[in-house]
């Protein structure tokens, strides 16, 4: 499993980072985890090919995690003239939220006659869903976004990759991260609790309980970015746009 960080930023452009998007290459298959508004830009920068992506998994319905689907559609239709099917997995209501976002930003775009099939699949809490060679198990977290938000646990090729999505600390992160080869954890702030997000102190305190082999911090605010060198646990690494990791 090869992970490429396409975007490791928050919703506010902190540190000039692109919005949340991870690319995962598996033998014979490429998938994305989250698709922030800047996803196509980030893939273009890194030489990743959108048409090779067969599935996009969305953690929750905030624009910095799913709005890129709108530009993805335009790019697939007008630039690459995509013909291969695309599956989008996400919280209940994802198709309607995508359609209304696309209609708002590019009126008429949801009705373009596409050359490729776009198939939407909805998650069911704690129920494994298999798409291609990937099994994903969603666990609900705490982060109001108009539909249930999820942390996602991916199993493919004997490896486990898990992702917190956006959330304040919740115990459902434990089954998400247990035994994971890599747990990608949103870490919005260093020690000041802000809204429905995690702090480094929340994560640090729970590292043993999480039980992941490695933890990668992401979705960092400017306050967290300014203090990130104070994170010194050997199990923890810091995400940055363009980072590639073998899992
Ligand atoms: Zn976010
Ligand atoms: Zn969010």
Present the secondary structure layout.
Blueprint: E1 2-7, E2 21-26, E3 29-33, H1 39-46, E4 53-57, H2 63-66, H3 68-79, E5 86-90, H4 94-105, E6 118-122, E7 129-131, E8 134-140, E9 150-156, E10 159-163, H5 173-177, E11 182-186, H6 200-210, E12 215-218, H7 222-227, E13 236-238, E14 244-246
Parallel strand pairs: 3-4, 4-5, 5-6, 10-11, 11-12, 12-13
Antiparallel strand pairs: 1-2, 1-14, 2-3, 7-8, 8-9, 9-10
Chemical compounds bound to the protein: zinc ion
| Most strands sheet | 7 strands, mixed
Percent helix: 10-25%
- Mean pLDDT, nearest integer? 98
Number of helices: 7
Backbone structural class: alpha/beta
Q: What is the spatial order of strands in the main beta sheet?
A: 6-5-4-3-2-1-14
C-alpha end-to-end distance: 5 Å
Q: From N to C, what is the helix and strand string?
A: EEEHEHHEHEEEEEHEHEHEE
List unreliable stretches of 5+ residues.
none
Beta percentage is: 25-35%
Overview of the structural elements:
The chain is α/β, with parallel strands linked by helices and 247 residues long. The chain is 23% helix and 28% strand. It has seven helices and 14 strands. The strands form two sheets. A seven-stranded mixed beta sheet has the order 6-5-4-3-2-1-14. A seven-stranded mixed beta sheet has the order 7-8-9-10-11-12-13. A hairpin with a 2-residue loop joins strand 9 and strand 10 (159-163). The model has no long low-confidence stretch (mean pLDDT 98). It binds zinc ion (ZN) (2 copies).
């Amino acid at each position: 499993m090869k992970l490429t960080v396409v975007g490791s930023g928050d919703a506010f452009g902190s540190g000039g980072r692109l919005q949340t998007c991870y690319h995962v290459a598996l033998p014979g298959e490429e998938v994305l985890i989250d698709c922030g508004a800047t996803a196509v830009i980030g893939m273009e920068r890194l030489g990743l090919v959108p048409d090779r992506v067969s599935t996009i998994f969305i953690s929750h319905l905030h624009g910095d995690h799913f709005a890129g689907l709108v530009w993805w559609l335009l790019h697939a239709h007008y630039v690459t003239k995509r013909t291969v099917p695309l599956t989008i997995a996400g919280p209940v209501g994802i198709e309607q939220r995508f359609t209304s976002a696309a209609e708002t930003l590019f009126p008429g775009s949801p009705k373009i006659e596409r050359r490729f099939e776009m198939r939407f699949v909805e998650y069911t809490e704690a129920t494994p869903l298999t798409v291609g060679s990937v099994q994903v198990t969603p666990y609900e977290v705490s982060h109001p976004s108009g539909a249930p938000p999820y942390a996602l646990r991916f199993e493919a090729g004997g490896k486990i990759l898990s992702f917190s999505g956006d959330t304040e600390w919740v115990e459902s992160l434990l089954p998400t991260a247990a035994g994971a080869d890599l747990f990608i954890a949103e870490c919005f702030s260093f020690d000041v609790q802000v809204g429905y997000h995690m702090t480094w102190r929340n994560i640090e305190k729970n590292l043993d309980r999480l039980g992941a082999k490695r933890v990668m911090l992401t979705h960092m605010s400017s306050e967290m970015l300014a203090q990130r060198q104070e994170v010194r646990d050997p199990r923890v690494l810091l995400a940055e746009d363009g980072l590639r990791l073998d899992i």
